[in-house]
Specification:
Distance between the termini: 20 Å
Protein name: Hpt domain-containing protein
Helix content: over 70%
Low-confidence stretches: none
Order of helices and strands: HHHHHHH
InterPro entries: HPT_dom_sf (IPR036641), Sig_transdc_His_kin_Hpt_dom (IPR008207)
């Protein structure tokens, strides 16, 4: 991976060194999974469940987003999804709704970085 691609990903919240460690140093595998993340619809499901007031379903979506972001070393998104999941598990639906802006911001930054790094539209 060239320095420019790494810098773009890191600016978007990707811990490239950590991610490569998870993917046994395979840049191609990391790229494939990051591109696959672009198709993930968990964020929209999470928002829909929050809008519907379904704390249990929202917690399931937040847990999924937390796991995916953790596995890909999307650390900012992981931290925000983890905090939001904690709120949902505590029954704090309003707090989780307020946290959604930060989760969305981190998600958007990661998606934009992945697209910029790999030319995905």
């Amino acid at each position: 991976m060239n320095a420019q691609t790494q810098a773009i990903l890191e600016q978007g919240g990707v811990d490239v060194t950590g991610a490569l460690g998870r993917f046994m140093g395979s840049e191609a595998l990391l790229e494939r999974f990051l591109k696959r993340f672009l198709q993930d619809e968990t964020l929209s499901a999470l928002q829909a469940e929050l809008d519907a007031g379904d704390t249990e379903a929202a917690a399931a979506a937040a847990h999924s987003l937390k796991g995916t972001s953790g596995n890909l070393s999307l650390n900012v998104l992981f931290e925000r999804a983890t905090a939001q999941l904690g709120q949902l598990r505590a029954g704090d639906l309003e707090g989780a709704r307020q946290a959604m802006a930060g989760v969305t911001e981190a998600y958007t930054a990661a998606v934009e970085a992945i697209r910029a790094a790999y030319g995905e539209g």
